[in-house]
Amino acid sequence: MVGGGGPVRRAMPSMWVAGASHLDIIQRRLSHIVVSKRLAVEIGSDLEEQSALHRALGDPHRLAAVAWLQLTDATPTELAERLGLASNLVAFHLDVLEEVGLVSRHRSQGDGRRRYVTLGPTAGKVGPMDVLAYDPPLAAGRVVFVCTHNSARSQLASAIWTARTGRESWSAGSRPADRVNPDAVAIAADHGLDLSAARPGGYDQVDVEPDLVVSVCDRVREDGLPFDAPLLHWSVPEPTRAGDFPHVWQDVDGRVVRLADRVAA
Predict the structure, then answer these.
(1) 11, 59, 111, 265: least buried by Cβ within 10 Å?
(2) Contact indicator for 143, 103 with CB cutoff of 8 Å
């Protein structure tokens, strides 16, 4: 009782609804707790991943390695030369980057003693990097894409490059096949490109002096190339069945986009 008035009335909790049982109230409260915890877990997981990626890139050598790999794959030895580090230090840095998915390493499909380092699945989450400059800057007015048989990967790369940039490009092979792989023709058609009239050709059929050569298979790169031009290497796995081609398309298309964003015409 206060000042002779009636009993003090306390406001009912916001969860209380007239007629609701104690079990209803408990279930509602629990549902709010579960939702809150789920949101906290999702937000926490995303922040943890971003934090891990930034920690891995906190070293300038690792940052330089990932930036370099945005345009070209490389062997650990090539990375060591590029970064000016001993091979054991490069191996350590690659372990750190691979642990968070920024790079991956795989065996060459040509010389099995070699391993190539490529961007990993989380590399796209850190965005493009312009911390490394090519001297002189890479030009891409006349790009030649090469693979062994010139029947799939190099044909697709050339077609995608021309479609995305509007610039003419060429493709060739060290041992050209009799025809373009029908599955390559099919995946190109799925994306609005016509390879039905394309024919494999050798290096001697490239009638321009390229200012950039891109090898898209390990064997052709390791066999040596007859072009006097800067070389980039894309270690794209050889497609052996129709089901491989969607991944090949996605891989090559992503690389073309990164290259087109970084080179001069």
Answers:
(1) 11
(2) no
